[in-house]
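Human:
I keep going back and forth on a fold encoding question. Comparing notes only helps if you start from a blank page. Show me how you would write down a chain together with its backbone fold. Write it directly below this note and I will take it from there.

Assistant:
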Amino acid sequence: MPVTDPAARARFLAAVRFNEHGLLPVIAQAAPAEGGQGGEVLMMAWMNAEALEETLATGRVVYFSRSRKALWRKGESSGQVQHWTDLRLDCDGDTLLALVEQKGVACHTGRRSCFFQALRDDEMTAITAPDVDPKVLYAG
């Protein structure tokens, strides 16, 4: 759901408090679907002002890759695209919750969520298996 009004995008951007590196933490959560399913936390990533502006303008979620120091259009190499249905700033304006429609898996490990490791019986344990082999995801 793109924001077509540039003034509305500017107002949203003005409400954001980016950190000292010009970044904003973003939690991507599965948007509720028909029948009430959704709510799963899928991933955490970062946006800079340019990524947030493009996300607002296009409806497609765009992050900033700290390792590549470049915009990262979610799904550009895997096809696992995110489109936002709602963007919510926290009370301090320094964290964004993006409710997203996730095409395929969110995690580069081939899992639906990046939050698949948990402490079980005093050991770190993978609590979900990959839905797709990462080699298949990134074969193209």
The two ends are 28 Å apart (CA to CA). The beta strands are 24-30, 41-47, 62-65, 70-73, 82-89, 96-102, 117-120, 123-126. The chain has three helices and eight strands. The longest strand covers residues 82-89.
